[in-house]
Amino acid sequence: MINRIYIKDCLSFKEIDLEFKEGLNVFTGPSGAGKSILMQAILSLFGLSDVKSSLGEVLISNSNIRDEVYDLQNNDDIIIKTIKKEKVRFFINNQTISKKNLNSFSSKLIKHLNLRDTSDFESFKLLNFLDKLSSIDYKEFIPLKSKFDLLYKELIIVKKDLEKIVNDELKIEDLKEFTKFEIEKIENINPSVDEYEELNLLKRKLSKKDKIEDAIKSSSEILSFRQNVSNTLELLEEDSSFFDETMNELNNIFERFNDTLYELEDIDIETVLNRIEKLSALQKRFGSISQALEYKEEKKKELASYENITFEKSLLENKLSSLSIEIEKLSEEITFYRKKSMSILEEKINKYLKFLYLSNAKITIDKKKLDSNGVDEVHFELNNVSLNTISSGEYNRLRLALLTSMSEFDIVENGILFLDEIDANLSGKESDAIANVLSTLSKSYQIFAISHQPQLTSSSHQHFLVDKNDGNSLIKLLNKKERINEIARMISGEKITPDAIKFAKNLL
Fold it and tell me: Please, what are the domains in the chain?
């Protein structure tokens, strides 16, 4: 419910600061006082109307909304704020939100009965109502509907898999040829994981081969002086073992490199470079040789799947057929329960419609193509004519009958309801009926309504007067005496008569 609303600098209103209770909240006042401006200003806080105020804030409690994006848990307070400077900015609990997302978020909280909102009579919403009603009245309906939902999801997956196979089948030969080509391209090179690094090392050795040979040949001359140095050390009576060991080690190094160079004689540098180039191309495409080998194995599996596609297609077709048969049977059972609930709902709506001085409504269920709601399409008629052809007054009374029926069955979430002059241009008995229905509906909804009729006004739990003084609109919560005077004004006009006062007291 809305606990408090604060609005600043909104057209003829300098400041609005109101606190609300549960139930029916009615705004009255002379024409042109600013009632419609007030209603639009409140709706703008929910992204349902253009923002005209410089600042707006609404506090909502007991919303029963969970929202991970805005870190909301059940029964958390919600503060929606609007700030208008160069542009309008919206906030939920100090987190920014776009107008579009706020509008979507608000749909969980409030319902606005404007002139031609047909959403309550959309087939999928009515089916949802019928399913909730069936779940209450027929306990076997709950596992039935759960099984349908589960199998329908499986059906969609099987259809998508089968569709992919059918599409693949049309181009299967091209896919097989391409996959074989990809596999052969890697197998023709036949790389090993460390080969690229080893060949680059070999390439570096080959590039230095001649320089190494010349350097060893030139440096080997030192070995011819080995004996002379040993003799000199002996004459000096010095131990020559360190020199002999060094010369032996140096000779071993030269011989080892000569053996390596000898092995390189048989290696064709062009062959090495070509091999490196092919491996480099694989690395460039796949990132590494190991990834290229993984890709090859994936393509082999893919090729095997193409070979088995006919078998897989047959399995999926059989599964689709069995699922379709089972879902069709479940759909028929669901339709059976929905029609039983439809009769109950229709009877309840017509009870309220009769009270609201309207002809009987007729709800029918026709068969349509299977979707997530089954095979049912709900149609609503009033006095055997389409809802598109009835008047706005009839339409809004029909919506009230529907909402009140739902609330009586306890299958709607408690929420907030905004009404735009729901009792305008109605007779006294019609206004009285509207007032009584809204009193019932206010047990499930917190209702905000503008009224020009004393019947609805006298039924309110809170009565607010909107008036204008020196061009400024003002609003106040009326006490009992003030309510009597305002209702009397609505009855007799600006010149309040004793009979109007008496009638107002009787209404209250």
Answer: 1-114+410-477 (3.40.50.300), 140-336 (no CATH)
